[in-house]
Amino acid sequence: MSLIIQHLIDAVSAGGIYALAALGIGVIFGIMGLLNFAHGNFIMVGAYFIFLMSGRPMWIVAATTVVVVILLAISTDRFVFRPLRGAEAATLLIASFAVAFLLENIILVIFGGRPKTVDFGHGLVESVAIGSVRISQLDIFTIAMTVVLLIGLTLFLRKTRYGLEMRAAASDFRMARLLGIRANRVVATAFAVSGVLAAAVSIMLVARTGGVSHGMGLMPLLFGFLATLMSMGNLPGATLGGFILGFASVGFQIVLPHDLVPYRDAFLFALVVIIYALFPSGLMSGLRRQGGERV
Amino acid sequence: MLDVRELFVDYGPLHAVRGVTIHVSAGEIVCLVGPNGAGKSTTMLALAGVLPLASGSVELEGTSLSGLSPEEIVRRGLSLVLEGRHIFSDLTVRENLSLAAGVRGDSKAFGRDLEHVCKVFPFLEERRNQKGGTLSGGEQQQLAIARALLTSPRLLVMDEPALGLAPVIVQQLYEVLLNLRGEGLTMLIVEQSMERAVQVADRLYVMGSGRIVLSGRSEEIAASDLKKAYFGVKSELGDVQ
Questions:
Q1: Which residue of B21, B73, B169, B230 pairs with B165 in a disulfide if CB–CB is 3.0 to 4.6 A?
Q2: What does pTM read for this prediction?
Q3: Phi, psi at residue B77, to the nearest 5°?
């Protein structure tokens, strides 16, 4: 029983990271129709900033990382995507590739290609015993941060003017603009939210792995894309997609024969293909449509 | 109030609107009629800043709207209700309405206008917490108009507001629009039904193949000329195709 609970905690923990990565990609995709390939590099830059700040109190490092990644995300919009407003989706996609390559190469020039170890979150390595189950503080930290961010994002989207404008723009950007909602402000807000979520993933990954490398943004980017595409930009769907990937990832790790474990991600991608086939309009929209017709 | 002069709008190499000139005076209802593909909706989208002008000018009360973004144009007093209503289906009725508040600096004035539109369309208050996507087609159209009214427009532009609605709902809708005209609201309406356009409009413009082919006061245009322009255009379109 305790083993099952341990696996469930691992799944929620991994799913939380994927869900936050998916939400960071999904807020931009929902509004601009852009799969931002630079999102993984936002995560990587956040991680290297944590490396630079290592040794300082954890909360100061975390807070300044969030600020730095928000500024990076907003600057990317201001100087790369805003001049391309109204351009074809392919143009935006190529621009996001360019930003991703630029950021990665800047990091390579400054820090080199070798992974670095980071003194961050070492206080979280201990485990706490709850009955017969031992839970690592890292898992508790990851799950708590995920829950706080999901609740915070929900409150932001539901209770604030900016959130309302973002939801409207994600639903029908042209109509939102015809009601006077300023496109640049909505997109900049979306990039800021995306930056917060990328920074959160940076913090979690560095705390869990104790290191940084120039390729560390790739896996969260890939899983975030998969969850975003499963939801077609629908944010609750992206969250659900992230947790499905987290649970499937841990599940395959457990159930696959030892020889097939190295191919776990191939099984995950096959699962994603099946979900696409079952819900071609996106996870939550598919569930909603099956739940009941509109009047 | 609205002066559109020699408006050209292109889709790539295709000239969708070719030299359209429209004038709307304060307090008027002006209808733009014509068959499918005549360029009516393209003209509306260009007026609202959604599509760029290839050439020509658009002025509202003497202020040029040319080259402005949709969000700037709505702040200058031209509000467009798109064909197909475009309600935010996952937002509640109240949220749909409150989106228009961003255009207004004065929250008290917005509150007064909100009360007024809820009197004009009483179901809005009753269903304020209902998702927009769960409303009937007629209710969605009324919500779309109410939402546009809350931007405090000096000119309300509507693209086929009757499209897809039951005749009895259309009749009720136009009664509301005529009442709003009585309150001083100026309207430019795209309408496919010639009969309805003649009934409600002070003046008419007939479009075909991207051009204005007939215009004048509703009571002065002979029915035969109107039909000839409308259907003549249709045959001309057939030739083009």
A1: B169
A2: 0.84
A3: 110, 5
> Model confidence over B95-111: pLDDT tens digits?
999 998 878 777 888 88
**Strand bridging mode B55-60 / B2-11:** antiparallel
Q: State whether A174 and B133 contact (CB < 8 Å).
A: no
Q: Which residue has the tokens 């699962």?
A: A271
Residue B238 banded pLDDT, cuts 50, 70, 90: very low
Dist. CA B129–CA B111, nearest whole Å: 17
CA A108 to chain centre: 23
Q: And the tokens for B165?
A: 């609605």
What ipTM was predicted for this assembly? 0.88
Q: Residue B4 in 3-state DSSP?
A: strand
With beta carbons less than 8 A apart as the criterion, state whether A241 and A272 touch: no
The CA distance from A219 to the nearest CA of chain B, in Å, is: 32
CB contact under 8 A, B88 and A172: yes
Structure tokens at B200: 């409600």
Residue among B232, B225, B208 nearest B20 (CA): B208
d(CA A178, CA B76): 12
Which member of B75, B90, B102 has the closest CB to residue A171? B90
Burial A142-154 (b: 16+ CB within 10 A, else e): bbebbeebbeebe
pLDDT tens by residue, B59-94: 999 999 999 999 999 999 999 999 988 999 989 999
